[in-house]
């Protein structure tokens, strides 16, 4: 099945970040080149980003939906993690066809989430704690309930007509491209009001904006300035690679579905649009920018974030998260992908490091082992990986607790529009519903969207009402309150990792070198900067594994391990063991 997120049965995105106050020397000013290290230090490179899915984080008013007041009530918790930046999924006004990724008013807050006053309090509270805020900017498309679209569809001559992509029906049916949220539906939707088709790459309630129209671009610059003037610290450009499309709308060759990215986006003008955004907005504020997706080629990705080109700060490439399948994944491929991406940005540009987000199933369930025996240790191993690679780590809320997939077995438990579309399609074609549900249980986006587990009280302390999506049954043991009390919990291990990263500039900027490349069980690498070398060894399997690093580990200093106690045989790793050594 061709999917936007390949492992998802329905949401189909194929390749679809205060900085650590590094107290090395007080004259070390962020944003300037550090001549001692010959590294281009930036706050957004040194930050650990914590992604909050607002709908599922904390409900304050008992309606079952997370909200801004809920986030405000948990700011001290967020601070305690040692993270520097919060990336918040969209909180703008939205009819919620795609949980806020369908914006109906870019300058207002979704009523489910609160008010602009709540937003101001939240931002102030974050800044007071030295944490920056990055907002999602969803401008490949708007909601069909946005005033622009309402105007646009009202008549062929409306001034807003050109804000979207319309093709008149008398010229025939537009050449087929499928909706990324529904492989079986044309991304062109017929609208009888004006006898014309509009384009929606995502759901039919998410019409694509026409970026070739300078007025649309100006609207977006103004929206960005509105939020930057409010004091936010960055933008995550949602699905931005699709903003630039071939508006001659050619017919695609047979089988294009397998490689749709090549046809759907990055086609014309994307780098120009980004340069314009940079000139008009980004360059005028101390904000960071990251595009979802990294284009079709390494060159595209590199060009987007090459500082000399004045586009964006960092890429967010999907190759890493695309590896895990319900059938498992191959560590050699995993190592190859991450090593390749590191090499592309070794000299110029910057990368995000992540293995999970709101569009992916849970980290430990996909890349680790969520069985009772190995959940904690494998979750810690994966966190060690994320926090010791070069690039800015993006860490998804709940993963610090080792939250796992909820194991939904009934379609009634699911909420995701893309999954529900696919379900109906399977019904129509007489597909196997048990197979569909089995795959969904592993890879559905809803796996990562279940309520954040705060304590062992009803609904995990997330809400006093009925949660919009079911709480994972394991909340009684896996929750913040329980993990606070356990010094060896996933939560406290994560805090050690953020501290380690802050205290070791080598983990941010240091050269990455892969070791024991062909070892199918162990991922081993060094990070090196100014004579300081850290060695990271990670066993990705549930059995004991050997590692040949080429270093004399007898003199290596143990910096951190996810197992308690000393290590007797340093050439062997226990199941899912992760160790960080300093090489003397
Ligand atoms: C991005 C978002 C995803 C959303 C889609 C459409 O991929 O991460 O959640 O559904 O864009 O806006
Ligand atoms: Ca609420």
UniProtKB/TrEMBL annotation:
- Which ranges form a coiled coil? none
User: What is one process in the GO biological process aspect for this record?
Assistant: oligosaccharide catabolic process
Pfam families, per database record: Alpha-amylase, Malt_amylase_C
Q: Does the keyword Hydrolase apply?
A: yes
Write down the CDD domains for this protein, in alphabetical order. AmyAc_SI_OligoGlu_DGase (cd11333)
Q: Which InterPro entries match?
A: GH, GH13_cat_dom, Glyco_hydro_b, Malt_amylase-like_C, O16G_dom_2
Which residues span the membrane? none
The record places domain Glycosyl hydrolase family 13 catalytic at 51-449
Keyword set, alphabetical order: Glycosidase, Hydrolase, Signal
Q: Tell me which positions the record assigns to the signal sequence.
A: 1-31
Q: Name one GO molecular function term.
A: alpha-amylase activity
What family, per the record?
Belongs to the glycosyl hydrolase 13 family.
Name of the protein this chain belongs to:
Oligo-1,6-glucosidase
Upper classification of the organism: Bacteria, Pseudomonadati, Bacteroidota, Sphingobacteriia, Sphingobacteriales
